[in-house]
Structure formats: C-alpha cells, structure tokens
Specification:
alpha/beta; six-stranded mixed beta sheet; five-stranded mixed beta sheet; 14 strands
C-alpha cells in the first residue's frame, strides 16, 4: 500500500487493446474500493487495484472512473458488487419478479433508482436490492455491466463449502459475515468496526444470537486479515482454528505472488457469479 492506502498491481505485458477478451470485476465496499482485470483466454489476473480506508467506497469508485483509464476499457464482461443497506433475501418459492416493489418495505432506506435482483441457485433464494444514490449515478457508465450485492463474491466462495461455516471477509475498517448451515444461508451482514473492542462485540453477538457451535463451525477468512494480528487472535479466543480462503486455483495469479493468497479471494470470486 502507498501513502494513499492504495495499490495497483499490473502485469507489464498487459495490453489494453486485449480488453475485449477480459472481464472487469469491481467491488465497492463500505470503506474500500477494488477491481481486477481477468484475461478469460489465458485465465490470467492481469491487474488488481485496491484502496482501503476510504471515507466512502462508492464515492471513491466515482472518483476513479474520472481518472483511471483501465476502468473504461471495452471489456467482454463487467461485474460490479456494491455495498448497500437496501437488500433482502427472498426464498425462491416466494419470489415473484412482478412484485419487486413489495420487498422495498423491508429496506433500510427508500430506494433510489432501479431495483436489481441476484438469484442464488445454489442456496435457493433471490436477493432484491437497490444501490446507494452515488453508486447508482456512477454506474450509468456501466450500463451493460452486471450488478450484484456486496456478498456476491463471498456467496460464490461458500458454494464450495459443505459443512457448517462462518465466512468473514475483511477490509481495514469493516467485515462481511456469512453463516451457512446445511447448505443454507442462515445469516449475512456487514459490520463497520472502529476498534478491537467493537470487533470482539460483533463476534460475540453473532455467536450468541445465531447459537454458533464454535467447536464444530468451520471458520473461513478472506480479505485484509493476517495470522497473528489482533482480529485473528480475537477469533481464536472463541474458535479452535481459522482457515484462509485462497482465490481460485485455476487462475494465473503471478502478479499477486507477493501478496497473501486470501487478500482478493472475494473480489476474484465475482467472476463465478452469473
């Protein structure tokens, strides 16, 4: 990371003229913004940008669009996952695409702009969501891009896990939590954390309210967390062990060789979303 809490890793052989053979993956977090460029012909990660500790991830996305030429190349496919307070998971047997507006009564805020949906075939529900005003305006530049809610990458990673598991995906100042049991999503939430005491509080809150058996629950970690740091040690007070989720093994991730393998797992997993 540089002094601006951002990093750009790029393959020196990447040619912007090959963008039509590449996918752009964008993750707009509560306090972070990142993207990756994947060459679909070679399965190579050609570039990764990440900025942490943003005052507002959606605003940072808007700013980068004005200055970062890599974001506006003519890609084969664009997938954007966005943090939003306005999201609800509807079981597929209750979902009716003609009644989307009925679900907005459960949103935290009045929706602005379009409503979006993301079907989770594996877990049997459909997420209905709207985007924050800033992001909704910004995404006019991505009219052909696919929009997803913030947990999309984490849900894609969870599809490969067969046991009871708690997945935590970290930025510097927040984390997304996903709890699965019997191949069903029991809980998903995003928490903003200012200090270690707050993190400890939310961990205990999840354990107690969800009645998590910490001895039999598989704890899976991704994002900005390290073995032995304060968050990791806090988790080991309650769980017997913690495993890191590495990005898909079929990708050529040479540009990430000097980075922890779990840093960008949920970002790269967006490529698995349909």
């Amino acid at each position: 990371m540089n002094n601006n809490n951002s990093i750009l890793l790029i393959d020196p052989t990447f040619d912007p003229a090959t963008a039509s053979a590449c996918n752009l993956l964008v993750k707009v977090g509560l306090d972070s913004f990142s993207y990756a460029i994947l060459n679909k012909e070679t399965n190579q990660v050609s570039a990764v940008f990440d900025e942490q500790e943003c005052e507002n991830g959606a605003q940072k996305f808007a700013e980068r669009l004005k200055t970062d030429s890599y974001l506006t190349l003519p890609y084969q496919d664009v997938k954007v996952a966005v943090h939003t307070q306005n999201a609800i998971a509807v079981p597929n047997d209750l979902y009716n695409e003609d009644s989307l507006n009925a679900h907005t009564q459960f949103f935290t805020e009045a929706p602005v702009g379009d409503l979006y949906t993301q079907t989770q075939h594996h877990f049997g529900f459909t997420t209905v969501f709207s985007l924050p005003k800033t992001t909704n305006e910004t995404l006019t530049s991505f009219t052909d891009g696919k929009k997803y809610s913030q947990h999309a990458g984490l849900l894609a990673l969870a599809e490969k896990i067969n046991e009871t598991a708690l997945l935590l995906d970290f930025s510097v100042g927040s984390f997304n939590a996903l709890y699965i049991q019997n191949q069903q999503v029991v809980f998903q939430q995003c928490y903003e954390i200012d200090n270690q005491d707050e993190f400890n509080y939310y961990v205990l809150l999840m354990i107690n309210q969800l009645d998590i058996n910490t001895k039999e629950t598989n704890l899976q970690l991704s994002g900005i967390i390290h073995e032995g740091d304060d968050k990791y040690n806090c988790l080991l007070k309650y769980f017997s062990k913690a495993d890191f989720i590495a990005a898909s093994n079929n990708l050529d991730k040479q540009i990430l060789d000097d980075m922890p393998a779990h840093y960008y797992s949920s970002l790269l997993a967006l490529d698995q979303c349909v």
